[in-house]
Each structure stands twice: as structure tokens, then as C-alpha cells.
Amino acid sequence: MIPSAEVASSAVLGVLLHLGYFIHGEHHMQSPTIFRLVFLAPLIVFSIHLTLSSFGWSHAANATLWDTTACYGALLVSMTIYRAFFHRTRKFPGPKLAGVTKLYHMFNVARKSDQYRWLESMHQQYGDFVRTGTPRIIELNF
What we know:
Blueprint: H1 4-22, H2 31-52, H3 57-86, H4 96-100, H5 103-108, H6 115-126
Helix pairs in contact: 1-3, 2-3
């Protein structure tokens, strides 16, 4: 049995990752590193569980599954809630799903190679200013 406090602390870690790191700046240039860490972290957690647990590898694997699911799930939920309800671009019109995930753009636009048509239809539907993707704020300092 996995302690609920352990799973809850993993979920809190996911929210803290979002609020402490991912919410600040753009991280698309660090994507390869983040991608590696996403797959390396469960191996580290598994090793820690295996070392500290007296139940063996199956218990360590189960605990790792619960911990990583709670952490990554909370991270994704935190990001989605922030983008949908709290980000300063939330009031711009546009497809709601496009405002919270880049997957919308990838599946509906980029694979067809007709972004110019899609953008034109978005402008016709929503007006001059359209939120077509996840928040990306560029600050210009003059």
C-alpha cells in the first residue's frame, strides 16, 4: 500500500515545479534536457524506493508509478488551470484548447501544413486579435 502522504507530496512537488520553474520564462530551448529528466526522474525515484523499502522491487515499482503519476499529473493540471484562468492572455478570443496546450496546434494545423488558412479563418471568426496557442509573452525593453 502506498502512503497517501507520499502521493500527496509528489503532487505538491508537481505544482511547485510549475509555480517555481515552468511558469517563469520560456523553456523550449531546454526541451531535450527536460525530456531526459522526465524519463530519468522515475529511475532515480525507483532506486530510492528500492534502497529504502524492505518490500522489494515490485513495491518500489508500484510506489514509483504512483509518485511519478501524481507529480506529472499535478504539473499538467496546474499548467492547464493557470493558462486557462490566470494568465494575462486568457481574455484574448480564440479556441480554448489552443490556449492551454500546444498539442491543439500540432494535431489540427501543423500536420496539414495549412497554418495560413487556419489563421485566416481564426481572424474571420474571432477578430484582429486571436489567442492561437499557449501563452508566450515577449517583453520589449526600449
